Structures
1.
Amino acid sequence: MSVISEKNQLTLISIAETAKFYTSLCLGTTAFLSVFAFLFLIPFVVDPAISSLMADYEPEPVTCMATQHIYAEGISNCSWASCREGCTREATRCHQIYVNYSKLPFRDYRPSIVMHWDVADIRFLINTEGCGYPPSVNCSEFARQYGYETAGTPFPCYYSRVYPDIQVVARYSWDDTLRHLVLSITIPNLLFAASIGVLSYWYCPGCGRSCQKYMHHFPTE
């Protein structure tokens, strides 16, 4: 019976060691991917979100009207663009839309109102960065919606209370921006910290002793 018991114990130990190995492999991969995910999210989510929050856009859309729509080709002619599909490359073809805006909330706009424009001929961007990636950003559709023959038709937009004379944007949500910022920072860092914490506890000989040493400072019932 003792031989059988020892074999069962060895089998259990072997299963536990195998499970620990594969769990460690998964945790190490998770930590590795978390670092790259966070580095990837910095230019695409974190930085634009911080820029949007710092610009302090008016949360309620105001009234805008396009005054000019320019379609240009060539890097020299596309020093800026209202919309770019891709944020890491220079635009060789671009739409440049200028608008007037009034601080009148768009929900209060009526065709019978004589508009007083607070700022005239200001740059109009799809978002704070003026760029994005399909399918959420489609510059051809954006140009059809706000430029071409629709010029002169009022539409909602958001102006920056910090930079009111620089640009206005078509898309903004304080709640969504803050949520994306918090998630993009917390999730990769929590996964990295949890993975490294477990691996350190398992494979760092001093970690367990350090934890036990600090536990003695807490009273026990």
2.
Amino acid sequence: MVVGLGSGNASCMAIEYLGQQLRAGTLEDIVGVPTSVMSASEAAKSGIPLNDYQGYSQIDFAFDDADVIEEDTLIAIIGRRKLEGGESIIQEKFVLNAAKRLVFIITENKYKGALDGSVPVLVQSLNWMEAAEEIDDLFLGDAEVWRRPSIGHADPLGGDFPVVTKDGHNVLDVIFTSPIANLAQVAESLDRVDGVVDHGVISKFPCTAVIASESGVSVIENVITNVAGDPAI
């Protein structure tokens, strides 16, 4: 199997467990495709054979952390955390979208009906201001748009040292000040903005959420929906 290796605390534990099973001989013939430098490092320490994500257009199975997941649809937001050296939302989404089966591993406080907080958006560095203004107009009154800084305090312009990803893009944090009614519609609106390269919203069918709580673990599957968000017939 080709397995997409996610990023985050839960994914690191899953990578470690996968390595233990390989060493014990319980699993064999596994190749890992990391979503980040962090997951590649954890996999190497765990003895998991690796290959680059650009070498695979189809991955059998992938797991990942998520910052938050929308109830029922299991549409997720990734990329809110600080991007460490070499990390890429583009790489992470490529691996997750290429997977035949995707599992998010989260805690119960990240599984919500009314989402709040930010959606990270990758934009071309040269015309980031134009993209930011268009996004601000899209969600006028519901969100603020700030360019993410690499160091120092955050401000709308990103300070003196804005984040520049390994792909050469700036990161805009679209910070919603009211609940997000429909995350799929937010993603569709962002996709139409000139200068937007990608964003942290991922919608995948089929998808599974493994949700940990103090009372135990629950597993939730999404259902296939059409573009309008209604159950497919």
